[in-house]
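Hey,

Quick one before I head out. I ran the complex with D-mannose overnight. Inputs first:
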Amino acid sequence: MKMTIRWYGEKDCIPLSYIKQIQGMSGVVTAVYDVPVGEVWDIGKLLRLKELAANAGLEMEVIESVPVHEDIKLGKPARDKYIEAYKQNIINCGKVGVKCICYNFMPVFDWVRTNLHYKHEDGSESLSYSNDDFYGLDRNNLRLPGWDESYTPDQLQKLLSEYDGMTHEELFENLVYFLNAIMPACGEADVNMAIHPDDPPWDIFGLPRIVGREEDYDRLFAAVPDKHNGITFCTGSLGAGRFNDLPKMAAKYAGRIYFAHLRQLKFTNDTDFYENGHQTQEGNVDIYAIVRALAENGFDGYVRPDHGRNVWGESAKPGYGLYDRAMGACYLSGLFEATEKILKEKNK
Ligand code: DNO
């Protein structure tokens, strides 16, 4: 296991020297943020990020994300051009020592929360989701906290209409087409792909979503068995679906989990929840049981504390403050150390 933390590059308000002070931290998870989706990242930009990390004594072995162009998800003729660029990005990442690329295949939107400043009684804040707030949104004038604002309202409507009528099966076929096309580049560069689950793991606005349940993973690995086809096990995303048994899934897929996002959430009713500090007792995700399932089943990937709260008066990017993620990293490192040592003793 290697403990990492997300760092948003030179614009991140959290200095790398502070990240280095978190004990047990091996490296940063980052990306090139100023190149449009679908284009090749200049290798110089990757090298610059790597050098900044290295100067602070940190590695850069995970990229999150190399985004997938919508034409690939839509299966449009232009997809082959975008897939070529994606392959080049994989090769370039491999050249600078990246071992794992996190990506997602959610149409149009990435993660969805309805409030970025949910107030806890102790004065801390976190992200939260309410079904009523979500379904109260005007589909013709969509604005949600944290969403990609790079589309104009017209562009967004046009893109949404391109997905009209697309089935889960069609989207899945487009994912398989993409993966089969990039696997040779992954082999050449020795880079593992780690698909991030849909967050939350159900369809939104009639858009199909296909990575959120156990059977989705079975189908994915059956369709593309190549070992470079793996997953990002995000406990906050998968955990929002009450139908998912996370420790069971962690055990079952441990060998395919190249990256784990460990995050806590607490349900306030059947569908609504807020995110919380990482400890098991703070929510509905049994972080201990998940870590144990990973360790017992030979997990050997990267871990990062995911969305933390904003605590101690910090005003950072929602979910990505320093303090609570640092506490989370230490808690998770402790769980891994204890679980792995107990296992070793047992196996002596
Ligand atoms: C949210 C993140 C996601 C994730 C992408 C991966 O905080 O976990 O935005 O980076 O879905 O492609």
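The pocket of D-mannose is lined by residues 64-65, 102-104, 110-111, 196, 261, 307, 319 (CB under 6 Å).

Talk tomorrow,
K.
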